[in-house]
Design a protein that fits this description.
mainly alpha; 72% helix
């Protein structure tokens, strides 16, 4: 199903052809269309086609390339392919822009799943920063606690759980307190 914005765009393009006496006007391509298509394929469970659509988009030097790298890495991570997720997530984490912290978080998760906890901790070193959304900051702290647990660094892990207990919503505090008690 086409979005209302695409319908309006198609209607405008058709009108421009009619107004020009039938000569087709060249509409600029929508750079987000392939990303939206890949997301729809992923939601439908067609992982292979989504992957084939995202892979060539990674070569775009701008925001589309960074978004495609993040989406491809996330898709592979969701499928249990941490090794295949590392390269696109690293590309996303090295890009500048608003998606960088999300790619860095997923890269840290990927490295943790690969058993490379020192590298994962290094990737998390600047997170969360003061400008990060609360949900991203919470996810980064939870992952940091898991990585520190795997590295057998209970004092640092306890400190992370203490920080989380101060920011957790009331419904999540019990879980945080439990984790704090375990360390």
């Amino acid at each position: 199903m086409a979005s209302p914005a695409r319908f309006v765009f198609a209607l405008a393009a058709a009108w421009s052809v009619f107004a020009a006496g039938g000569a087709a006007a060249q509409a600029p391509p929508d750079p987000m269309a392939p990303l939206e298509d890949a997301a729809a394929l992923r939601r439908a469970g067609d992982w292979e086609r989504a992957t084939r659509l995202l892979e060539p988009l990674r070569s775009d030097p701008g925001a589309v390339g960074a978004a495609a790298a993040l989406a491809l890495g996330n898709l592979r991570l969701e499928r249990g392919d941490a090794r295949g997720a590392e390269s696109p997530l690293r590309q996303g984490a090295e890009a500048q822009g608003p998606l960088r912290p999300y790619a860095a978080l997923l890269l840290a998760r990927c490295l943790h799943e690969l058993g490379r906890d020192d590298e994962a901790l290094s990737e998390l070193s600047g997170m969360p920063d003061s400008g990060a959304p609360a949900s991203l900051a919470t996810r980064a702290l939870r992952l940091r606690a898991g990585v520190l647990h795997a590295l057998k660094r209970p004092n640092e892990e306890s400190e992370v759980w203490r920080r989380l207990s101060q920011t957790a919503r009331s419904g999540r505090r019990e879980e945080v307190y439990f984790k704090l008690a375990e360390t």
